[in-house]
Prior knowledge:
Layout: E1 2-6, E2 18-22, E3 38-43, E4 48-54, E5 57-62, E6 65-70, E7 78-84, E8 92-97, E9 100-105, E10 111-116, E11 124-130, E12 140-142, E13 145-156, E14 163-174, E15 182-186, H1 193-196, E16 202-207, E17 212-217, E18 239-242, E19 249-250, E20 258-262, E21 270-274, E22 278-282
Amino acid sequence: MSTRARVFRSFPCVVAGCLLAGAVLVNPSYGQQPAIPLVGTVATVSPAETVAVNGNIVYTCDDNEISIIDVTKPSTPAIVTTLGSPADTANTYCDVQKGDLVQMINTSTPSFRAYSLTNPTSPSLFATATVDKTFFGPPYYQGNTAFFGMNEIVFRQGYPGPITDQAGDFVSMDVTNFNSPVILGALESQTHGSVADGSFNVYGTTPYSNTLVYIASTSSQGAATQTGNGQTMGGRHNESVVDVDGHNRECAGNAAGLRAVDTRQHRSHDWRLRRMETAVLRQ
């Protein structure tokens, strides 16, 4: 029997959870660490995982709730109230988009939720929908599109049993209608089906511009976690450039480690890798 594990993890504050506010003061002395003094802190009921900012109001998506926090005075942030949220998950990602609070949650039924901020201190849930992907990490948004990586590990006889498989992908999702998000495209061939997607873990994604994103990935697959480049347990990272603007681009090494992906055509095209050496745009 195999058990699938959500492996994207954050590092909440010890004990319950908290929101920290800090300021960076650079120490000019050679060889000295910069000082980062703590400005303020407030405890949350359960560990705070991600933060969304709306003026002087901050929303933390916690393991068991959403905390609404007044940060008018950063030295004394104060909990205004909390909002019910699907419980017991560390994979909960908050953001403010188009004036509303949005939340992606990676639970047994992955979901996208939106809350009206007409009253910023009292968010009101007005949209909820299932996300047709799983084991996803933090999304980032560009206009009406959400981009996110996926990272799945399968254990035989439950964690921490032997690893039997792994999967992942980089995905774009249209969130024009918060009630009905639509998957637009994915980078990998769907070797593990339309939900788990490709064969390779994606560990992190960072947008460089409106048209380019860098992705930390791996070439190891299946149960072979100690082989390949950019693997979980150390190893070196090769750089692969994947361009889907209608042209092929050479990749340095194989398609592993750091990838650069052109996102200009995410609305109307599907991404694919071919022979782990070049990337082509399939129209």
